[in-house]
Amino acid sequence: MDMWSHQADEIDELPAWSMAAGAESLIEIENPLPQRIDREWAFGGATGEGVKVCILDSGVDAEHPLVNGVTRALTIAVDERGAPVAEEDSAGDACGHGTACAGIVRAIAPDAEIHSARVLGAGFSGSGRVLLAGLRWAVAEGFDVINMSLSTTKREFAESLRELADSAYFKRTVLVASAHNMPVESFPWRFASVISVASHEEKDPLCFYVNPRPPVEFFARGVDVEVAWTAGGTIRATGNSFATPCISAIAALILSKHRRLTPFQLKTVLYLTATNVAAGVDA
Amino acid sequence: MPDGTDRLHAAVGAGILPSDEEYGRLLRSIVEVARAIFGAKASSVFLYEQETDELVFAAVAGDAEQHLLGRRMPSSAGIAGWVLAAGTPLILDDVASDPRFARDVAEETGYVPKGLMAVPLLDEEHALGVLQVLDRPERSRFSMQEMDLLSLFANQAAIALRLLGSARRARAALAATGDVLAVAELAAAFERLHGDRRDAAHRLLNDLTRIFA
ipTM greater than 0.90, yes or no? Predict the structure, then answer.
């Protein structure tokens, strides 16, 4: 039994707005923080089993050998009231990018459930609205991890995205989003409630760094990576959008071993096991 | 609907703003500079057209084929479409290893590159298009630093494109209205004058103002 798993049984789905006198048992933390959290504790032996990862992207080619099947593939549209409409998606991935992300997650967390939600590919004019609808749908579905290797620069969506990101944060859905390496504002990666990721040049997919100079919070492998692409092939690719699924997958590993971690706790574990924090401890 | 004075002001403004021809020169300059910075075989720009929700192949420098200029494709097609919608730069290498993908890229660029960098042209929240740099003879792979450099350059290019684009639209709007076009043309002609001729034109305009006022 680890320090946080006791919450699984005790946590009422209703929020506690205050703590009445004599209700100390409600905030009792059974297990104190272990003396140290290392990678072995965090994800040693983990495979991602039982963890649901949603890839919000261009779709996923489920037949690709590096993807090896998806649990579900949906395409997201927007109805006249702006609400998301999810339908079965048999189109696969015309672009290759979503397949690349799914392949990265599969390589690191082989037993994680991969769910594809296609929000790109139906034209640019509605892309911000569909992205927002896709995230709304994914948060409502209660995925454990949502991988967003994309962002929008449209300010009109920023506030809704922020509300959704906050809502995911409190519903135990971890949002992992690509940081932007261009001098423009984009969303949702800048929000404090998500985990933002940019690239480093190391080859090890489990090597990741915490960044002491935010808003980018973590660096993961994103340079010259061989990734799954269209037609069952692979391609060598560079971009923050390939670093992001590394962190999504590591989050899936951690969550498969420690099922009920909140995003706050997960981010803490990521911090404590980051290569530039854990290196000295594990040595 | 702007009143008459606003339209005349707009006409004078549009008259001294850059023309379509200068817009084309800017686009060509962007791809030529991008190609030169990276020693690449080719560079190209796709512009996003809101009315049709399409990407238009607007400029190319280098080996890629000029006859593809003006070609249109759905705004979500291919690598350029993904980069536009995701708003995120991308580097792809060993492109030829995937025949289907190679064909898609060839349709976008006019030839099959081994590697490419693609960045969105973003001015604040507006996505104007996608800038691509394709291959280079010496070193095959593009680095992350180069992507950052291309992103910075794309940012500058996007600002210039936005300014010229606004001017172009202003001129087009005025051309449609007709009656104030003469004012725009007069302002443009005045802007082109230098030295004594400009001084003389200035005196003449002042005299005209006194007569009309």
Answer: no
Domain of residue B126, CATH code: 3.30.450.40
Q: What's the pLDDT at A188?
A: 95
Neighbouring C-alpha atoms within 13 Å toward the C-beta of A13: 1
List the domain range (segments joined by +) for residue B143: 22-171
A44-282 fold: Rossmann fold (3.40.50)
A99: region left, alpha or beta (phi > 0 left; psi from -120 to 50 alpha): alpha
Residue A83 has pLDDT above 70, yes or no: yes
pLDDT tens-digit series, residues B7-64:
666 666 666 666 677 888 899 999 999 999 999 999 999 999 989 999 999 999 987 6
List the single residue in B87, B90, B155 with the smallest CB-CB distance to A237.
B90
- Residues of chain A contacting residue B141, judged by C-beta atoms under 8 Å apart: 224, 236
B127 shares contact with chain A (CB less than 8 Å): yes
The pTM assigned to this predicted structure is 0.84
All structural domains of chain A with their residue ranges = 44-282
Three-state secondary structure string covering A217-231: CEEEECCCEEEECHH
Residue among A95, A199, A235 whose CB faces B82 most closely: A95
